[in-house]
Write a structure and sequence with these properties.
Helix content is 26%, strand content 24%. The chain is an alpha+beta fold. Helix 1 runs parallel beside helix 2.
């Protein structure tokens, strides 16, 4: 309502893609975003169908009739293609604050909210936590040194907590500590430290899926039956056990861990074209887990994509 043909429409929480779909139909450019991978897949499928219809309509279009004004015709689409960009490392970034809190608890850091640079203290050491989206680099250490120079009265040593480090870091630290008897710097690397090395021990989600071609009843064509027999997300189980440390997490129905199930019945190994998408409508709804789809006459590769509640994907394929 508030835009004109050719304008750019932004939807930051695209969901099932209604805003982008209407913008495409009404000749607007659009940008659609969502943190949920299932939403992106569903929106992509919806827009692919719309664009195919627009391409077919353009191929069959006739020259404008005399006396028919352009305003009476629907606006032409601004584009007949789109791209999907992954603009962040979802699996790490969406959990970044939680990871920092876990590191604080694990290493024994006392948070300091009044300090604009250092994250807290550990005994008599100042602590700096390097963002977990990159390894510790000499540039990080140079910024730390510059901060210490701006605090000439600071006599405490510094502990840097990081998730990996560049090779050049060790040489930088050796040279720095030789020339600085005060404000020495040590590093706790969470991935390799003997005490904290299991901090980010990740076990991927796994699924047991049955995919088979079955004969139809009398007069019916063959069909493909997909049955998800079991699914486990160790990351979700671990998070539940962190919330209730005195008890082992028990999830009676694997479907409670699944956000969306998508199936491609003609998977080429590169582009996932959704033939079926199972996205529960309500918060308490669960995916079905068993699906029946039309089978092409020739052998085909079926791909089943399962996305859990934390956004981790499992892809299972079979040729039937």
């Amino acid at each position: 309502m508030m835009s004109n043909p050719g304008d750019l429409v932004l939807d930051c929480f695209v969901g099932s893609g209604t805003t982008a779909a209407v913008a495409q139909k009404l000749g607007r450019r659009w940008i659609a975003a969502d943190v949920n991978k299932g939403a992106i897949q569903t929106t992509s499928k919806r827009l692919q169908a719309i664009i195919r219809e627009q391409i077919a309509a353009q191929a069959q279009s006739q020259p404008a009739l005399p006396g028919v004004s352009p305003e009476s015709s629907p606006p032409s689409p601004c584009s007949l293609s789109f791209s999907v960009y992954r603009v962040n490392d979802y699996d790490l970034q969406v959990q970044h604050n939680e990871a920092i809190n876990l590191a604080v608890e694990l290493v024994g850091i006392q948070r300091t909210k009044t300090d604009t640079f250092f994250d807290g203290t550990r005994g008599r050491h100042l602590v700096k936590i390097v963002p977990f989206n990159h390894p510790l680099t000499p540039l990080d250490l140079q910024l730390l040194q510059d901060e210490l120079k701006a605090r000439p009265d600071e006599e405490r040593d510094v502990t840097v907590v990081c998730l990996g480090k560049e090779i050049a870091v060790d040489a930088w630290l050796d040279d720095y500590n030789k020339h600085h008897p005060i404000n020495k710097i040590d590093v706790i690397e969470l991935r390799t430290d003997q005490k904290y090395g299991k901090f980010f021990l990740h076990q991927p989600a796994q699924a047991r899926v049955s995919i088979e071609r079955r004969d139809g009843d009398a007069g019916e064509d063959e069909h493909i039956v997909v049955e998800i027999e079991d699914f486990i997300s160790p990351t979700i189980v671990e998070r539940l056990e962190m919330d209730t440390p005195l008890f082992k997490a028990h999830i009676p129905d694997w479907r409670a861990m699944v956000d969306v199930v998508m199936i491609d019945t003609a998977y080429d190994g590169q582009v996932f074209n959704i033939a079926l998408s199972d996205v529960p409508e309500k918060k308490d709804d669960l995916v079905a887990g068993t699906y029946q789809l039309p089978a092409p006459p020739q052998p085909t590769t079926v791909a089943v994509k399962i996305i859990d509640m934390l956004g981790e994907e499992v892809l299972v394929t079979a040729t039937v």
